[in-house]
Amino acid sequence: MKAKKQYDIIVAGSGMGGMTAAALLANRGLKVLVLEAAHALGGCSSSYYRKGYWFESGATTLIGFDKNHPLRYLEDQTGISIPKKEIRPSMQVRQDNKVVTQFKDMDTWIEEISRVYGQREQQKRFWTLAYDLSEVVWKVSLRNHFFPPVNWKDLVPLITQNNPKDLWILPYALRSVDDVMKDYHLDRPDFRRFVNEQLMITAQSSAKETPFLFGAAALTYTNYSNYYVPGGLINMIHEIRDFILKKGGEVKTKCAVEQINRTAKGYHVHTAESSCQAPVVLSNIPVWNMPYITSGEIKDYFTDESEEYQQAWGAFTMGVVTNDNYPKNLPLHHQLHFRDSEAPKEIDSNSIFVSFSHSKDQQRAEKGKRVLNISMHTQPDFWFIDDQKEYEKRKREVSKYIVRKLDQLLPGFHSGDIIEQFSATPYTWQNWVYRKKGRVGGIPQSMARSLTDWMPAETPFPGLFLCGDTVFPGQGIPGVALSGINASKRITRYLEQS
Asked: How many separate domains does the chain show?
């Protein structure tokens, strides 16, 4: 065992939340160490290389650079410039014989959604409300770094830093997306399917279970600037890594955190090969993993918290390389809808999400070829079985089903053009990004959970902080980046007061 080394902050996990916080803290002159279990940085906000091509690890869409958005804040505070190109339109949805193109411009979007589903005036009122609410949510979220409050000190900025004019949004924390749809008589079954599937890829839940306060931002994310990172999202993570290193921090891969032990002066963090110490630890590790790397009352705390959130989604994903025989102006992101009865029992999804590499991105695939990242929701427990033959059979069946649906629904896709193909289940994800049971996407939205019933960035244990998609505000790259911003603010206050 190597000798312990002293740092100001140790960050466990290099997902976007941890990297955001590490960059902000390093920028303040603090000595930061980031430890990542995998061989590549970024967790679910990254890319991986396989058979000559670059695939995205998890997230494939990228927003958060508009006014009052977390990634804009990160760039403004640090001077980091994440390599990116805006894409328009953001996405297309294919439902039965309908094609819905999701435009950034709100007026154009309202015309498009009305063209497909009718009820123009109701659609206009619904989407205008959703966007207006989303604007306030982003603004208020970026202002309130100490939400949810954990003590009386957190209440002071909540009272003094907020505008009473923004309080109109609060009742929508108690009303579901479904409730608001009913207000506007938007009750067409096909439109309801559209909304439910949009929420599943953003809020991990349905219109009935998603509070409109969160659902508004989830539904309107395509009305903000959407970006593509040439070469893959790992280049975004590497840009942040380079900034941390420039500021004197350290970033280590293949260094899984095996134990976090509390001491009189802070924490000892143990990996297989070394031990280091710091007064502060920031965990970017999902809440479900925390009981396995802590002990005593800390372990008890995380055991209780993780048991409260056992219902979470896994993903069945595919990486596919094909010849580039697609229509010239085909958007990069697609959601393909289908009926319940069509899906195999191995999944619990009514849609497939497909993202393409850019046709001119020859870092990810040579000219004339395209990389496709494909994902569907699935129940994690279904894939954790002892029968290896049955497991492989299930993988093959779902893979065949997905390819068949792509043949049917995705313009320009022909299975005969496939050059490379592989699939991953929640079991794969557990071994790949070390998330317990392969749960990805965070904790699903629920009307039963109040605004304050979210895991905050600050734990009851002095010096131990959290970020990531199982911490407020939840899933998505902007969401986890915001959790990292909030954690950095709490850590800074803690160190100043220690």
From this structure: 3
- Report the alpha-carbon distance of residue 10 to residue 281 in Å, rounded: 5
Neighbouring-strand partners of residue 86:
227
Task: Examine the fold and report which residue of 175, 203, 225 is the final residue of a domain before the chain moves on.
Answer: 225
Q: Are residues 459 and 423 in the same domain?
A: no
pLDDT cut 70: percent of the chain above it: 99
Mark whether 174 and 273 lie in a shared domain.
no
Residue 476 tokens, joined:
């998505």
Please say which residue of 415, 438, 461 terminates a domain: 438
Q: What are residue 77's phi and psi, to 5 degrees?
A: -75, -30
Domain co-membership, 63 together with 29: yes
What radius of gyration, in Å, describes the C-alpha atoms of the chain?
22
Residues 137 and 156 in one domain: yes
Closest to 64 measured CA to CA, from 371, 471, 473: 473
pLDDT of residue 5: 62
Burial of 162 (0-12, 13-18, 19+ CB in 10 A): middle
Q: Which two tokens stand for residue 493?
A: 């206050």
Structural domain of residue 259, as residue ranges?
A: 9-83+229-310+452-497
- Is residue 99 included in any domain, yes or no? no
Give the pLDDT confidence score for residue 1 in this predicted structure. 38
> Tokens for 181?
């749809």
Same domain, 380 and 278: no
Domain match, 417 and 376 both: yes
In a domain, 97, yes or no: no
pLDDT digit string (tens) for 291-324? 999 999 999 999 999 988 888 999 999 999 999 9
Quickly list H helices, 118-248: 120-143, 152-160, 177-183, 189-202, 212-219, 234-246
User: Is the Cβ–Cβ distance between 201 and 355 less than 8 Å?
Assistant: no
Cα–Cα distance for residue pair 456/424, rounded to 1 Å: 31
Measure the CA–CA gap between 20 and 169, rounded to whole angstroms.
28
Q: Does residue 147 contact residue 457 with C-beta atoms inside 8 Å?
A: no
Tokens at residue 427, please? 């079991």
Residue 2 domain flag = no
As given in the structure block, the two tokens for residue 20 are 């955001």
**pLDDT tens sequence across 146-165:** 999 999 999 998 889 899 99
- Strand positions, DSSP E, 338-468: 351-356, 369-378, 418-424, 464-466
Question: Would 325 be classed as within a structural domain?
Answer: yes
DSSP conformation class of 62: B
Q: What confidence score (pLDDT) does residue 4 get?
A: 55
Answer yes or no: do 268 and 376 share one domain: no
Q: Which residues contact 235 (CB under 8 A, 6 or more apart)?
A: 47, 83, 229
CA atoms of 127 and 348, how far apart (whole Å): 28
353 and 432 both lie in a single domain: yes
Residues in the chain: 498
**CA distances for 67 relative to 142, 472, 475, angstroms:** 10, 20, 20
How high does pLDDT run on average in the chain?
94
Comparing CA positions, the residue from 464, 469, 470, 471 lying closest to residue 491 is 464
